[in-house]
Write a structure and sequence with these properties.
By secondary structure, this protein is α/β, with parallel strands linked by helices. It has helices spanning 16-30, 47-53, 66-76, 95-104, 123-130, 154-160, 171-181, 203-213, 217-223, 227-251, 255-277, 283-308, and strands spanning 2-9, 33-40, 57-60, 81-85, 89-90, 110-116, 139-142, 149-153, 186-196.
Length: 319
Amino acid sequence: MKISVVIPMFNEARHIGRTLDSIRRAADFARLDYELLVVDNGSTDAGPHIAAEHGARVLEYPGLSIGALRNRGAEAGSGDWLAFVDADIEAPDDWLAIWKDVHEQRRADVFALECDVPADAPWFARVWQRRKLAADRRERLRDWLTTQNLCMARSWFERVGGFDERLLTVEDKEFTLRLRRAGARLLSLSAPAVLHWGYEQSWREWLGKEYWRQSSHLRLIRGNVRLRLLRFPLLCLGVAAFTLLALAALLFAYPLLAILALLPGLLAALALSLRQSVKYRQPVFTLQLAGLHWLRLHMGAAALCSGICKRPVRRPGRG
């Protein structure tokens, strides 16, 4: 069995060597035939040269969406299996061995390990990543998965037609939702985890990435008109509206009204935080996460308004 590992890349010279080395170790550990396909989106750093030095086949496709890059890589590959990995991810040695066992035991059709950040990442990056991690080591079937590391048979990729090339972000959620509707079982495993080395190193980068991640919600909703997908965008707009009301109340010297107007947004952020943090039973973590959610809700509202006004959203800068 051969696996084609597709890695979209843009200015990842700092990380691509580590990523490719970890994938090679994982493939060797699993005793799999493999090929490494780095699909470059017009990098201006040494990333393509480093990728080639580490044994990858580098494909040049500047200016395409992330979904299009993944599709081009899959088309160029010859493996029976496909794996999609971000260019700043370090995979554990047994990543592909676990996928091999999952496939052979028919426990799932699509597989991903959960993602963590290195211990020296800033607190906000660690808190934000930790919210996604399960508190135990149980396997879980999911409705959708992210693409930091995603394994499947090529037949599933072809069955749903690959990634939506029109989406700037959330293409992984849209793609795996289609896989789920097509009957695929999506399995997530919390340990071992892959490491995300491209974590946000500053508040500016964190806010920019959150704005970017929310920028394709309108297109995603148009293709999947479901109440579940509408909830978060509507929550973002509602929280932002209350914040604007609070600012107006302060402007006209109504401090009590300002506090009351802020409460719905703060409570919404706390509810989102509790949903993800209660399993840890750590109040400080819960409060930190609530603050990040409050900021994210406003980034989501700003991105939605930009989408409605059809303003272009720039790619966030690297840390």
